Amino acid sequence: MILAGLRLYELENLMQKLKATKFRAKQIHNWIYFKSVSTIDEMTNLSKDFREELKKIAKVTETKIKKKQVSKDGTIKYLVEYPDGECVETVLMRFDNRANLTACVSSQVGCAVNCSFCATGKGGFKRNLTYQEIIEQVLTIQRDTGLKITNIVFMGQGEPLLNLDNVLKALEIFNEDFQIGARRITISTSGIIPGIDNLANMNLQSTLAISLHAPNHNLRKEIMPIENRYNINDLKKALKNYIDKTGRRITIEYILIHGFNDTPQVAKELAYFLKDLKCNINLIPYNSVIENDFKKPSNNDIMKFKYLLEHSGKKVTVRLERGADIDAACGQLRGKNI
Ligand code: SAH
Ligand code: SF4
To answer: Is the pTM of this model over 0.85?
Structure first.
């Protein structure tokens, strides 16, 4: 049995079977999620005899670090390996001026959505991650660094809304077991409408981020094949419904690709498209991925685009590039040991 991923009540049930007190469950829970140990032997406030007994039936984890890369800017990228040999990447980002420690987690091995600007989609889709495998990524970071993660973004490999049950279960564990506030958790999607509709009917405090990347159908479908399945006008209706039902502000993510979707005319069209949506906008200058010849815009063009959107009354931020020297920036995760 693997202990990582067990809820407090599940540990309590286990203790009952082992004829140990409820308090032991609390101690073990603390070792797993807060002190982030890798082995039962490290749970030093349990008696030696009890640890031996527990070791006969349980292990903390079977997830391994296959590769670790540290960027100049402090970002760390891990290639995490699960017992079946499949790997995903997970990234720890720290921002100098803030106490936040953000984990960027993967929700699937590969991704079927296959956006043209993203390295993850290139390898195709392998399988969904279980909720235990999702939380193991955060535990891996905590075990390796000794730090406690404060924020989670579902912006690693995979499309979270195509693995919604596991993502929601992981979210619950992040919230209740890791004690990470739901408001500090963001789910990013390429626009899977049924998933957005499901989220609209739940009372989640987390942020929904939408990878929009273009203000109209024709431009969007050039870079995102998902546009042929869930088109931008239906997507907008789903987002309006989500905002109406939850009262929450969403985040619009928008990659800026030089000469493609970064012109002043497109900025105005985007501002018009977003006019009646309660949202903040996060601009992501394109990060290079070898398989295509897109380029990032100049700083001047980025600022012009930002200005035009701000002019429409929205809050606009430009995402800081993190870990590009180790291919850990947005869209650069491919989950391979190369
Ligand atoms: N599949 C989900 C979540 C993971 S991607 C989604 O697409 O929303 C996280 C963000 O990185 C998305 O907004 C995605 O569009 C963006 N991204 C992908 N490739 C990129 C690249 N090459 N440069 C910059 N951002 C990229
Ligand atoms: Fe999948 Fe997101 Fe990459 Fe598109 S951007 S291929 S949805 S991981």
So the answer is: yes
